[in-house]
Structures are given as C-alpha cells and as structure tokens.
Amino acid sequence: MLKHSHLVSLALSAIVIVQVCSAFVPVNHTAGLCLWYGQCDSNDRGALNCYNNTPARSVDRSSDIYSLLQDTCPWYAIGEDIKLCCDLKMLQTLNTQVQAAQKLLQKCPGCMTNFMKLFCATTCDPNAATFMNVTSGDINSKNAIKKVEVYMLTEYVETLFDSCKNVKSSQDGTRVIGSMCGTSADQCTAEGWLNFMGDPTRGSPVPFTIHYNYLNTAKQLPDGTVPYNASQVNCWESDPFYNQETCSCADCPAVCPDLPHHQPTVIPTVLGIHAGAFYTLLVVPAWIFICMVVVAAMYGYGCGVYCTKKKHNIEDEQVHSSCPCPFLWSCWFVPLDFVGYHFDRVLRIGFEKWGFIAAKFWFIVIPVAAIIVGILAVGLTQFEITTDPVELWSAPHSQAREEKNYFDEKFGPFYRTEQIIVTTNLSDYVGHTFVIDNRQVNITLGPIFNKTLLIELLELQNYLTNMSVPFKYKNGTEENITLSDICFKPVNQYCAIQSVFQYFQNSEELLNASRSDYFFFYGNYISHIDLCTKSPSSLNMSDLDIPCMSQYGGPVDPNVILGGFNTSTNQSVGPDYGNATALILTFIVTNHLEEELNAKAEVWEKAFLNFLQNYKSEFFNFTYSAQRSIQDELSRESESDVLTVAISYCLMLLYIVLFIAGFRSFYTLVFDRLYFTGLCGVLLVVLAVLASLGFLSYMKVTASLIIIEVVPFLVLAVGVDNLFIIMHAYERQRREQPTISVNECISKAMGTVAPSITLTATTESCAFLLGAVSQMPAVRAFSLYAGCAVLFNFLLQITVFISILKVDMTLLKCCLGCFERQFYRLGRINGISLLQKIVREYSKVILHWSVRPIVIMFFGVTSILSVALVVNGIPVGLDQTVALPKDSYLLNYFNDMYKYLHTGPPVYFVVKDGYNYTVPEQWNKICMSGGCSNNSLGVQVAFAALQPNYSSIAEPASSWVDSYLAWVDPVAKCCGYYANKSGLELCEIWNTSITDCIQCLPKNTTGPSTHPNYTAFLEFLPLFKVSIPDVNCDQGGHAAFNDAIQMIPNEGSSNISEIGATYFMSYTSILKTSDDYVSSIKHIRELTRNISEELNHEVFGYSVYIVFYEQYLTIVSQTLINLGASFVAVAFMTFLFLQFSIGATCVVMVTVVMIILHMFGCMALFGVNMNAVSLVNLVMTVGISVEFCSHIVRWFYYSDKPGKVKRAQDALEHMGTSVISGITITKFLGVFILLFAKSQLFEIYYFRMYMCMVVLGAAHGLIFLPVLLSCLGPTPRWRPKPKHLIEDSLPNWNKPTLNGSGRNTPIGTPREPQSLYPTLPPDEKSPLLKAN
Predict the structure, then answer these.
(1) pTM, rounded to two decimals
(2) Confidence check: pLDDT of 1291 > 60
C-alpha cells in the first residue's frame, strides 16, 4: 500500500511557474493584472515563475490552451472574453501534476473541486495580482520568483480543509490529509496543511516558497489587495464543472445519517438499582432474616421438646422423631409405591444372585471380562488426540468455523507471525537541532531511539533474516533454509518485515547517514524517523534522500512498529510517536493449510526461538514469540506437570490399597489389609478408562489433553467410593454373620449396596452422556469419554471386583483363618472401624437439636451469598496466559503486548462469491467514493469506525473497488496495455517514450463517475492485480489487493475471468480481555448483518480470534443446557432407584443444586472464569455430588432406626464412613498435590475447582444433608404384607413389626423398618443360598 504525500508535493510544484522580467517594479494590485507569466528559470526542485505584473492574456477558444483549460480549470473557460495569467506550458505542468492529487482526493468531488479552484487561481487567475504579492527580495537575478505571498480569508481556508480532512485512502483506509500535511492526520490543521504544501524546506518539492497569510475582514492589507475568497462547495455538495457526484459518507461525515445512539450493555436493574447491588443490599438481608426466623422457630421447637421430655420423662427418639413438618412427605401414591417396591425388590434379589454367581464362578468372570476389555482396548490403535484449539473449542458446523474454512479455502490461512518487542532501561532522550528554512527546529525522541541501541537491534534483525537453518526432508535429503524461503513477499524479492529499520531500507549505512555543512545540521536518523512516522509512504521527501517506503515495497505504519507512545482522545492531537517506549519487530511468514507445507517455517521458528532464548543485550530488553510458541509451551507444560500428576495419583493409589478395608485396631491390621483387592480395584479403574478410550476410538471420537488429564481423575473418584462401599458392606456382613461362607457374605453385601451403587453409576453416566449434546467439541468429547468410563468402571466393579474379592478373601481365610478365630475368642476384634467410631460421635453432635439450626442457617446464608456473587457476574473467557507454565517466556511477551501495542488484529469483511460487481448499481453498494450508496459496505464500516465507544472497528476498510476505479480512470494514467501483444500486458501509460502503450479506457467511455462498463470492469481487473504501486501510480493493486480478489476462470467462450469471493480489510481497536474479544465479535456480526441486508448478498466478518472466542457467546446457554441435562438425569435416576420416592429425590436434588450453587460462588470468589474448562468441571461436580449424597439418602430411606434423627445418624455412621474414607480423603490427597503444579491452568481450574468440589461435596454430604434428612427426610413408604419364604432372603425392613399394642402393623401404614441386616442362625442359610 502506498500513501501519497510525494504525489501531492509534485502536484504543487506545477503551480509554480517562471515569469521572465527584466527589472523589478513594485506590484500593482489593480484588478485584471497578473503577478507572473511564463517560465524563465529553474532549480533542483523544478521550474520557477517569472515576475510579470502585466494584464492577463486573452485565450482563443480554438487554441490548445482553451481545450486544456476546460479539462483542468473549467471555471475559467466560461464567458465571452477569457483571460488568463498562465501560458500553455504552465497549464500543461499544472494539468500533469494535479493528476497525482486527483488520485488522492477524487473520491470526494467536493474536496477536489475546492482544491483545484485554489491552485488554478494561483496559477491562472486573471486577477492574481489582487491577492498575491512579491517583493524585490523574493526575485532572483533572472526575475524568477523565489517566494510569493498569498492572502486568504481564514474562513476560506477552514472550508477548504473541512471538505478534504476526512477523505480516506482506498488502499488502507487512512485519511490522506496526513500524507499532505507532513504530520499525522489527527495533528493536521487547515493552516498547517497549506503551510506544509508551500514550504519546500519541509519536504515539499515545490521549487519556491508559497507563504499563505490567513486574514479576517478586520486585518489591514497592502494597498489594493483583497483576500482570495472564491466560492466553494461543501463536501456534501456537487459541482457540475468537475463532477456531478457528492462525497460519500466515508469521506464526508456530514453526508452520513446521525450516529445512532447505542445504549451501553444493558445492565439489569431493579427499582433503578443494579440488580446485583439490589440483590446484595436488599434481597440478601431479607433472606438472611427469613433464615434467622426459621432458626429461631427451630430453637423454640427444640426448647419445647426439651421441656416436654423433662416433664414427661420421654425418651429422646420419641421426641426427636422429626421436625414439625411431617406433612411435606405425607402424600400417598399407593400404585406408585407398589411399582417402586417391586422394582427395588427385583434389584436387590437380582444383585444377590449375581453376587453369588460372580463369587462362585470367578474363574469364568475374570477371563471373560479380560477378553472384552482387551477387545475394546485394541481400539486404542485408532486413538487420536488433538491439540488444535480450533478443533477443540469450535464446533465443526459453527458459524465461526464455517467462516474460517471459507476464508482459508478462498484466500489461504492467515499469516504466521514472529514478533519481538524491545524496550530499554536507558533514560536519556536523543535529539538534535536542525536548520530548516533558516530557522532552528529541535526534534527530540525517546531513549528507545538511542543510536547504539538501534544499530545493535538492526544487526539482530539482519542476523535473523539471514540465519541459515538446516532442514531435513522426509526422503532424508537436507538443505539450509533462511527467512527468505518461508517469508511473505508482497511485491518484490524482499521479506515483509515490519520494523523501524524499513525507514532506512534495513541498511546500517543509511541509518548512520546525515547531512550538514560547516555551520548547520540539516538531517540525520532522528529527523528521518520524525518525518517517516508522519509520512510513512514518502518515496523521496527526506533531507537524506532516503525513501520512507519499506524495502519490500509497502508503507510501514508507525502504529505497528512503535509501542508505548502517548495517544489522545482529542482529534486535533495525534499520537506522539517520538515518545514511544518500545520498538516492535514483526516477521511475516506465509502460512499453509497443509501442515507438511509449514514444516520449513516450524524449523526456522524453532531456531528463531532458540537463538533469542540465549541472546543478551546491555542496551535493551526484549520479549518474543513465534507462531509455534503457544503450542510448544503447552506441550512443555504437560511434560513439566507429569511428575506432579503422577505423585497425585500415587498418593491416591497408596491410600486406596492400604485403607480399602478400613482400620479397626492394630490387632486386626493383618486381617484388614486387602492389598491385592485394593490394587486390583485401582487396576479396574485403569482398565475402565482404557476400555472407554478404545470403544470411542472405534467410534472415531477424537480425544483431547483435558480428557487424558481429567477422566482418570474422575473415574478414580467415583470408582473408589464404590470400592469402599462394597468392602464396608462385606465387612459388616462378615462381622454380623462370621460363620457364613464367602460367597454368601458377598451375595448379601451386593444385595444391600449394589442398588445404591447402580443408582450413582447410572446417574453419573447419564449426566455425562447427556452433556454430549454440547456443540463444543472438547465438552462433547469429555462427556462421552467420562460417561463411558464411569459405565465401564461400574460394570467391572460388579463383576470382576466381586470375583477378585472372593479369591482374595478365600486365600486370606486359608492362610490366616485360625489366627482370626483365636482373635475373635479373645475379644480382640471389636467389630467396627476407628473411623466409624469417630463418625458415630460426630453424628451425635451435628444432629443435636441445638446444632441443626446453626447448620441450616450457615448453609442458607452461604447459598444466598453465592447467588449474590453470581448475580454480580462471573467473568467469561480464558486468558491465554493462564494456559501457560508459570515460568513461560510468553508471559512476559503477553504483558508487553498488552502494555505497548496500539493496534488490534485485522478483520476482513468477506463478500461471498456470486456478487455482481460489474453493474454500477451493485458496486455502488460496495464502494465508498463519491456517488456510492450511503449504506454501502465501505461506508458502513467507516461509519462504525466513527463510534469507538460502541464498535471495535478502528478504521475504514481498504476498498479494492475504489482503488480499481481510481486506477482504471483515464485521468490517473495508470492503466495501459501493449497494443502489439496478443494478450493483455500492463505497460507504463505515463511513460511517453513507450509508443505502443494504449490507455485502457478512453476518456469518452467514462461517465461523470469514471465508471467502466461491464466488459471493461472485468477485462482490466487482472492488470490491476499485478500493478505495483510507485511514484507515478500509487493505486496499483498488487501489494494491497492481489490476495483480496479471487478470479474464477470463465468456462464459456469468453476469456474474461469472473470475480469470485473478495474481502475488504480493516483493523480492530485494541483488544485485551475476553470481554473485549466477545464484544468485538458481537459488533462485527451486527455490522455484517446490516451489510448483507443492504447488498442482498451474504457478507461476514473474519478475524483470527473469532473462531476461538465465539464459544463465549454461548457459554452461558451451554452451561445451562449441560447442567440442566445433568440435573434431569440425576432426578430421573434417583427417582427410579429410590423406590419412586419423590421425597428422597427432592432431597438429593436440593443437595446437588446447592453444591453447584456454592460452586458458582467459589468460582466468583477465587477468580475462576466461566469457560469450557470450568464447564467440564461443573458437569463433573454434578456427577461427584451424587456420590456424596445418594448413598446416604438411600441408607436413610431404608434404615430401621426410629425417628428421622436416629435414621440420619445411622446413615451417617454407615455410609458417611465410606464417603469420607472413599471419595473425600482420596480426592483431597490427590488434589492437594496439584497446588504444586507449574501450570496456572492446573492451579486455577484443577486445584481450586477440584478442592472446592471435594470440600463442598463433603460439607454438604456430611453436614448439611444429615441435618436436612433429620428435618425433611422422607418417611418409609407403604409396604405390602410380606410372604415368609420370600422375606427370609430380604432385609428385615419387609418383615411385619409389632406396634405398641403388640399387634401387627396394618398394611399401608407408615412404619419404621426392624433391621437392615438380619442375622441368621449360624446353621441356617438363606433359601436363595441353600443350594450351595
């Protein structure tokens, strides 16, 4: 892309004409007199005008000058007697040079008209002497004018400037006024604009000084002079003499409709108060007050109970049978109870039979299971794991993914970038005083521009550019590659490297260049940097005669190569590039869709990183990054945390093996240590994971690292709990009936606890599998792998583990049976474990009438506070720095990037193929020049750039349509082709020495808007794509638009290709946080929807970040869907396996929901953002929450203790021990080790969330749930009258009991069960087991 200040300067040089005069006579300012006429002298900048204060010359209408006057200055070609103060050569020079200015300003006809009127007036106006003046000192010995005074009204200058100040370049969307002002567009003023154009010492190539005097009506003027104040047109008006069109909205904001008043993001309010604040300040205290009332009522009830007990001497269990809310679960659904009872009965009998079979025929069960697992594990040969973030977080058919695929297919993938950000600890500013136009000008730059620093940094850049890296092909051959083999080359053979050294053509010699004489200093690298940051497209404006244009042929935007400079919200004050505190070097490398084609780039990038890792400088500090950096660091992170994760798993495995059978006393230590059973139980978890991986590999489900890291952890948590429950049930049966066989003991244990295990396993599997409805690939894959692993683990536990337990216990009895019987006789075995004793005493405390209200109060208040935290918002997104190791070099790079960079990523507005550009009505909906629609694509993007408080678009889009129309315009003299060659081949139409070069469009083929016809539009577009911008034609499209236009070969008879997909590139503002990125996506999509409606054709916005951050647009809904599906699964399975008990289901759901609610509160409290990783953890929390509460609720439901309090104590004593020794201690040990992981991701999303998961689950399961059950727990359901033969094989809760009168309890009457574990006489077996 080429900016255009040098062209404008050349245009201005045409205004100065030499007039030959023999002697100086003071200027006569009478109307009708000239100030100059003809050309008589010249200097190194061009021709000088000759002083000639004579009357204006008449023009013959048949002369060449009249014809040229009609084209160049049509305002002076009107009337009967046409007089001018210029001859044909002067007008020809003006006509030639203003063509360059037209290329810049022709997009806005109003601006171009005013601009031409001014310079036509100073060149040819017949009354020039009335508003211009010279003195004797302004004329040389040949009467050539060296300096001229021009008097103008300030109002006129302001109007001229206002009509031109917003004209945008169609190449890069920047305001062209900056290239014509010697400074940035924001800093340019009306007076500064004309002063720069009239001052040859400031870089303008005009041959003499034009000094503009800005006057108002009250200022005294020389006698006879009047200020120039010709009529002008505003930018929203048209001038029939030059062009019938008006400026577009993009170039003239006055044409635009009023900016819409976009409301900021709607924040929910209640009564005018922020919803979060309202909830926190009003609702939370109200709920706390309600909790306090409930607690007071409970204490009042407790005091009444205490007084009643003392007065009537009533036993504890008779008083505390329940809280005063029995009506909650008092509804009866006899048909539902009947079905639920028989379903539960079938389960228990079935599991009893299965337990006996698995124990008896262990030699069949184990091999068969091994074969099945082996077959599934073979699927690991097809196992695929992806680390591509696009594949992980973007659904294949999501909008962002389809847009990315379309862009990559049509235009190729976005470039690879390697970047270095350089800062310094130096404190001394650098500066120099230069002599410009006989006045001293001091230029000061920041310490980062220290000369020694720049030289060393240039040497580093050149070393990296020429660094030779060995590369080995797949066939074994080797070659050395350099950056030139992989870099992006937009125009010539040089790589596109964005750095400040492009202002010096990457040459140390030019960096050291300076110009001075014995007395004065005129320029060095300081003045050149100052100039180039203001006019980066300059080809030859510097006092050092060094172009600012880069070596690779394009301009270098100072916003891209400099960082840390001051910016101002005031439009009149632009960026202060001289105070930049960082230099940015960016190497742009070509990217490919096929990974094997990127092999060379990856090898070079590795050498690039290795070199910079060891590079040191005493003058500057630097941070760096390459395209492969994040992937490398993620791999290193996984490797660095292998030891930490391994230690975590080893601690859990060691604990499981040692304590799976519990600890009763040192006397029973040898009998309780089931090392083989514990080890095999852990091995089954591994086999379940392998079976899951293999099975889903058969199904072509791609895995991710999060699955490898999380699923084993999850299955171990769930599976270990089940192992402990089975072992504890077996120990209870062995303790209560020590004389029965191992098979019988296992059978009875399975009948007791297998339904509970089935409840949790199926609930968790369904919860995870329902999570597969997520559109996010990583979450979907995790849900599938986790659900299958939990299911396989459950199946292995109720089959293989039972068989292993039988083998291990049989061996143990054979080896140590006699010792065990001796210990029983001596009374050394007390029957229950130490943990069970502790839990028994704990249950008495936690369920005391004075403690329960406190528990309810605490959990109620914390739930309310959690809601308050959630209402106030949980941040959405995943900071990319969090995924890196704590010692990663990229952390410093990202910090510098956020601190110093001033531009956001590019955004492409893609018009899909099929749009008809060749019809003026259609391209008017795309372009942003004069005559274009005010709702065109270009105008809407430019309009969005004017709303920085709402839109993320930072600048107008570069438009190939506008550039092409300007390039093909005959006035521009850019488009020409050789007449004597068979095919179209571009030639230099401006070069008069080429005689066979024909202009593409004769002037008479264009209308007032210089629009080509259908055939011409398509025919010359390929020439535009290969046209390289230069000083003669800056509109060439090769550098900026070669990749932006897809040409489709015409399969018909015509050789003219059709236009396919195209894009229009802009930039976003600075995006630092996930919220910035998400807001940007929303605004871009809103904008493209409006554009698509205007074009009646699909347009979408594409940027590299959209595919990664699109997930956060729907993360809240995805969370609700996944959690909702999990809750439904938990509720259904709990209802199914708890004998269709609505009360028990509600208790479980209340506990699970409260755990999730507290989990959200902890996320807000501990800085855990809402993203895919935390969503996976939340789904896992639902599954693990079931483990913490379902077993306890089921035991409570079937407990034979009198009263809810006693039943809650019984459930806590028996199942609470399994929960503590199983999942709680196991997970706590494993999670605690993750605190020492090097990865911030592990620390935040695994350690913090997992620890909260364990603590919250244990707190709710062991504290809140027993209290809730003691108050609102379900009462035993209706039972049918039992049959004695059948009931002998079932727990005694089915046997009829006697009421206080000694009579049998009537059928259908609620009652408490007699005994959960009936004890048979030593010589009697269950009828189901007598056959054995």
Answers:
(1) 0.76
(2) no
